[in-house]
Specification:
The protein has a domain of 79 residues: Methylglyoxal synthase-like domain (Rossmann fold), CATH 3.40.50. Helix content is 48%, strand content 17%. One of its GO terms (molecular function) is methylglyoxal synthase activity.
């Protein structure tokens, strides 16, 4: 499976905790991430992660393009619902493209765990 990993700044620690918990599962899949999320994963795990631009610099749109062309099967996008994001239109577009292409997307830890436990 090809999995995209994205986290807002206030959720990066939560995503890293999730990734470390399931590193043995994720290691068998192809991973991509926005830049700072990918760097965090690379620095703290043994996982190989293809990194796109930072979300606000177009990374969300790059991952959206990968979804649209059939190159992503799952998205783990831990969003911070309590902080306004300057690139909110990009985030909305990414979530929309997931819906258009019927791509499972987890926007919180509980949903991410359910996806990993039941599908991966």
């Amino acid at each position: 499976m090809r999995i995209a990993l994205i986290a807002h700044d206030n959720k990066k620690d939560e995503l890293l905790h999730f990734i470390k918990r399931y590193e043995h599962v994720l290691a068998t899949h192809t991973l991509c991430a926005t830049n700072s999320t990918g760097r965090l994963i690379a620095e703290n795990t043994n996982l190989m992660v293809h990194r796109y631009q930072s979300g606000p610099l177009g990374g969300d749109q790059q991952i959206g393009s990968e979804i649209a062309t059939g190159n992503v099967d799952f998205v783990f996008f831990l969003r911070d619902p309590l902080t306004a994001q300057p690139h909110e239109p990009d985030i909305t577009a990414l979530l929309r493209i997931c819906d258009v292409h019927n791509i499972p997307v987890a926007t919180n830890f509980a949903t991410a765990e359910i996806l990993v436990e039941s599908v991966l």
